[in-house]
Structure formats: structure tokens, C-alpha cells
Prior knowledge:
Radius of gyration: 32 Å
Oligomer: single chain
Number of helices: 19
Helix content: 40-55%
Strand content: 5-15%
Largest sheet: 3 strands, antiparallel
Shape: elongated
Structural class: mainly alpha
Order of helices and strands: EHEHHEHEEEEHEHEEHHHEHHHHHHHHHH
Distance between the termini: 73 Å
Amino acid sequence: MTNIRTRFAPSPTGFLHVGGIRTALFAHLVARQAGGTFVLRFEDTDKKREVEGSAEHLIASLAATGISYDEGPDKGGDYGPYIQSQRLEIYQKWAHKLISAGRAYADPYSSAEVQAFREQAQANKKAFLYRDHRPENPPVWDGTQPLRFKSDPKAYTWHDEVMGDITTGPEVIDDLILIKSDGYPTYNFAHIVDDSEMKITHVIRGQEFISSMPNFLNLYDALGVSWPLFAHMPHIMNEQGNKKLGKRDGAKDVLDYIRDGYLPEALISFIATLGWNDGTTKEVFTHDDLVTGFSLARVQRSGARFDEKRLLWVNGHFIRELSLDDLYDKAHDFWPEQASKADDAFKKRVLQLVQDRLKTLADLPMMTTYFFEEPSIDMSLITNNKQLKKLDVQARNEYLQATYDCLAALPEWTAESIQAALNELLETTGQKPGVLFSLIRIATTWAQFSPQLNDTLELLGKDITLQRIKTAIDAR
RNA sequence: GGUCCCGUCGUCUAACGGUUAGGACACCAGGUUUUCAUCCUGGCAACCGGGGUUCGAUUCCCCGCGGGAUCACCA
């Protein structure tokens, strides 16, 4: 174990979308590759925004995507509690240190008064700075007023592991609120206290915090806490690329992707390469690849768009890479209802035939139902088929009858013997495979598409194949 | 508007002063004696603009332009 400690600190206000998962993943990878520790912490200091059940949901999302952590609300650890609302005394203690050092004071104004200051500044076309209104003799803090930080405005230059060196002037530093009038700390204050107490070495979070960095730095200094390493992730943008991906514009819950048949490993590979690559032409990464190859230095500085088409390709890729047994395990919840009575061996063979065709596990029903129940006849498949629409009913039935006779005579029912019989049929009828095979395929599956014909018939079995051909002949 | 960040094919990206600017997704065409998919082959397609620095700039600097983030008793 090294002393590298990273954390993921979401607030339990909803679900986790790909942006959140990526931040968690990167923090997790930094810890894992260094043999360090990854901690989960809930930042629930805004009770108004808290969403019932979302803490559990967040934990489930991390579990589902294989992002493991070593310390957290449900795991414990040496630096708990890992829920901010249970750490209120700790913030009080640090707040009082600041007060006695003369670096924090009670805010005597009402929020309406502060708002008035703000509007006044706006009217004068000046940036609003609370410290321009810093009271000369603030009241003693009794916990009912907000507690403000007495900032020490100055220029800062700091290094960001992703963004590089950043410099700002004193004009962006202000007296921000440390503890709200409801007794809860703000993010600004609490995360610094917690990261310090929890010995966090790398603060990895979204880019939206960069603009607050000078204020944070000023607070670190006043608190006498040494700066950790910082890494701010570029945003994942929406599909139009015009703003950061948010829940408002269709950002999906990662658990929904799992429900929709995406493999966790595909999701992880895709999300990792949204803003990161290893410098080679490698396109997909396993978790192990990422643990060894990931580096903050190679994270992109600009935002990346979320491209569903690429995710779909990555998912198909991972599905094809899976062994049949692994795929079978993962596909467990995705079979069509009609398959419930089928046995494992048969389902496995079906799965083997469609493995190359699956883009998501959820494609399974659409591709396999006719293996488990009698398909309903859909003549439009024939009448809309550009090869078959030219055949009249009589010709069609003659071909089907010839197929029936030929297959019925087969002593042995294997993919090879079926193929041999079909080839022979091609010769005796003088018909093109495009016509004959399409006809047989549709007559036996009534599906838009299906695996290779001989494999399909073999798996269907001789009896069902013959019976379906017969039914097709009788149909009109 | 102030502040900060960013700017290579439609999209994700490679390139760390010298390349016919590479790969992948998507798209298009062809092949693998049926469909769909896989797989293979080929194709289309990019350095935001203008100045510098340099023998030489996609790459370094400056100015524009464009995009994003942030300016809460939210995180």
C-alpha cells in the first residue's frame, strides 16, 4: 500500500450519469494503479436537495460498473464517518479555529440585504464582492448567522494534473460562506476539512470547480492545510456538443445502461476513452488495461461529446469477445419470456448463433423468439422481398414442397448434411440461392433476419423445420 | 459582462518543429455462393482565422474569432 488516497464525493441528490461515473473511475484508477486507497464520501450538506434512496442508488451504480472503493459509508474505515451530515462537530471545531485566528466572522446581513448589494454592484457594472461590504464589527457568531471566511485576496498560480498551470488574480477571491445559517457547512469548507482529515492526496473532480480554486487555495492556507494534488476533468458534453452533459438534457442513469443491455466493462472502456487515451491506437480497454495504463497527464483538456453510436460499437465488441459461458451468464435476464421453458443447453446454442449479431443484450428477444415459439406468419416479408416478390404462389409452394421432400429424406440432421441437401436443391431446382434460401429462411423463421440458414434449421430440429415448411405452404 | 479553460476529419482522438497529418466510430462501395450481423478490402473526410518566431510551423508566442465553465446560505 502506498499513501496515495483518492476519493469520490458525490452528493446524494439523484442518480449517477456517465460524467459522474467517469470522475469516479479516474479517481479509482489513480488509487488502484498506485496500490493506494480509494474512498467514497457522501456530501449531504444540502438537505433540501437530498433525494430519498439516492445514496443506495449511487452505491449500486458503483458496484454495477465495478468501481470498487476501500473506505466509505457502507464500508467503514479509519477516517469515518464518511457522510458529511455526521461530521458536524468536526466542522465546528475547524470553524472555531478559524474564528480564534481572526479568519472567520458572523455575517450580520440578511440574504435580502446581500442580494441588494449584489444588484447594486450589477447596476454599477461591477463584479459583486461580498468583502467590499465586510462588516467592521461583526457580531459574535451564535450559529444562527452564516459564518464567513475572512479572505486574504491575492494572486495564485497552481498546477493542475490535467489542465496544467493556472494563474488567477486577487479579484476572484471573496469571503465565502463556511457554515450556513442552518448549521451545515458549505461544500467549500467541508470538502477541504474532510480531504485533510481523510488524508486525501489527489482531489479529482469536475472542471466546474476550477473557478473556485483560488478561493479554496486561500482557505487551505488559512486553515494551515497543505494543498493536495488537483486534477480537474473536462466535461462530457451532450450529443450536440453545446453544453456539459446534464440530467436535464438526456443524461442517462448508468444503471439504465446496464438495464438496457450494455456490459459494465464496455461502459467503463467507453467512458475512459472519452477524454483519455494511452497514446497508442488501442481502442478498447479492460479494467486491468486501465489500471496499468491510465494517467492523468494524458487526460484531454477539452470536453468530449457523448456518442451513443460508438458506445454501441464498443458494447458489441465486448459481447463478441466474451466466451459463450460468460455471455450466457450475463445474458441471463435478457431472454424473451418464451425462452423460460427452454433448457440451458438449447439456449446456449441459440446464443452462440446470435453472439456476433448482438449490439446489446437487450437485442436478444428480437433475434431469438422464433427459436422458442411458433412465429406468426407475416406474408409481407415475402411480398416486400425484392428477390421473392417475383415468385407467384404456385412457384413458391413448389419450391417449399421440394425443400420439404428433400429435408424429410435426410437420414441425419446436422448443419453439414442440411447444407449438402440445400446445395443439391439448388441444382435440381436451378434456382439462385438468393431466392431459394431467402424463401426457406422466411418460411421457417418469419423473421426480418436470422443466422445462417443451415445452422438455424439444425437448431430448430427436423420436426419443427418440416412442420413450419408445411404450415408455410398452407398459408396464404 | 468579469474571471478561467479549451479549439485536428461529422464524432472520439494520435502527433511532443520536418509525416502523403495516423487510428477508431459513423457513413459509402465491394468481397465472404440467402437475409441481418461478424470479418476482410477500399473510399469520403480535419489542423478556427490573422500576424509573428524559425531554414521550416498543426505543434512555440501574440491578437482576433468560436465554444465551454463559473460568478449561491448548490455541490
